[in-house]
Amino acid sequence: MGAGPEGCPPGLAKKAVPCAPPGQVRKALRVGDRLPPDGIRLDDPARLGLPRLGNGESYYRIGDTVFRIDRETREILELLEAVGAILN
User: How confident is the model at residue 11 (pLDDT cuts 50, 70, 90)?
Assistant: First the structure.
C-alpha cells in the first residue's frame, strides 16, 4: 500500500509530526509559553460558556485551541483544547 497512517503519503508519514506538510508544523504551545501574535481574541467568553476570567486575563484562540493568557505578559496560563470545537 505504501501510505502512512490514515492515508498519509509515505514521505509525510515518516516526518516527526506524521502527515503534517512542511511549514505547517508548529511548536506545541504549553502553559508558561508566550502566546504568538497570530492569536484571535475572544471578546465574549461568557457567551461561549468559558469560565470567568481573572483581572488582567483574556481568552485567545489559535486554530482549535483556546488559551487563557495574562494580557500584560501574553503568558499562557491555561489551554482549553476541547473548547475550540464549539467555536466553529
Answer: low
Q: Which domains does the chain have, with CATH numbers?
A: 1-25 (no CATH), 31-87 (3.10.450.160)
pLDDT number for residue 29 = 85
The confidence score (pLDDT) of residue 18 equals 57
Q: How many residues does the chain have?
A: 88
Over pLDDT 90: what percentage of the chain?
32
CA distances from 43 to 10, 23, 49, 59 (A): 42, 29, 12, 8
SS3 63: coil
Which cell numbers hold the place of 59?
481568552
- CA atoms of 9 and 24, how far apart (whole Å): 16
In the numeric block, which cell numbers belong to residue 69?
A: 493568557
What sections of 1-88 are H helices per DSSP?
10-13
- Does the pTM surpass 0.70? The reply is no
